[in-house]
Amino acid sequence: MSAPGDVVETVDLVFGLAGESLPRDYRAALWDALAQAAPWLRAEPAAGLHPVRASEGGERWLLSRRSRLVLRVPLARADEAAALAGSELSAGGHPIRLGSARRRPIEPSPTVGAAFVVSGEAGELEHQQRLTAALRELGLPERVIFGRMTQLRAGTGMLTGSSVVVHQLGAAASLRLLHGGLGPHRGIGCGLFVPYKEIAGLTD
């Protein structure tokens, strides 16, 4: 199913992930490492890195055999991104190796959510108003559930945002949000939406 309107159609690539750990605030370091191996990633607004599932280990995240790196890229770039398989990277001094990649198509869901969305507003009410208005501008329903405001480290700075769940979506509207995302900093995972079945724990 193609993306509606002028939204770029995307796909998730799921890589095996070998290594012992990632730094506590790994997102920017991991994105930088990927972009060094594939510089074209920085020029693709739709490209982004999903959160890595790992176990807490003090000042780091501990990887297991089941850990995966999931990269969202434009469908037209999928083969180039898959070529990252076998790459040995350093994420903030933590060595990792990418295994083989499999494609996970973007499928519509009546409820989708993003773990962290940035609006540029620090206040909770202003944040919610800004994102609700952004959804309206995209022609999407404003049936939204916001999580509590938190902060995410991005390099040397901090970003303020919240989880966002949008429900009662038709197939076209769902795909528009899944492919297009919401807000800035897509590279480090902000504003990347996934179907309901994958978003347990997003809201408080």
Q: Quote the distance from N terminus to C terminus.
A: 33 Å
* Low-pLDDT stretches: none
The percentage of residues in β strands lies in: 25-35%
CATH topology assignment of the largest domain:
Alpha-Beta Plaits
Rg, nearest Å? 16 Å
> Pairing-aware structural class of the strands and helices?
alpha+beta
Major sheet characteristics: 5 strands, antiparallel
Per CATH, the class of the largest domain reads: Alpha Beta
Strand order of the largest sheet: 3-6-1-8-7
- Write down the domain tally: 2
Rounded mean pLDDT is: 91
Helix content: 10-25%
Globular, elongated, flat, extended or rod-shaped: what is the shape? globular
Number of strands: 13
Question: Can you describe this structure?
Answer:
By secondary structure, the protein is α+β, with helices and mostly antiparallel strands. It folds into two domains: 10-105, Alpha-Beta Plaits, CATH 3.30.70; 112-198. It contains four helices and 13 strands. The two termini are 33 Å apart. The mean pLDDT is 91.
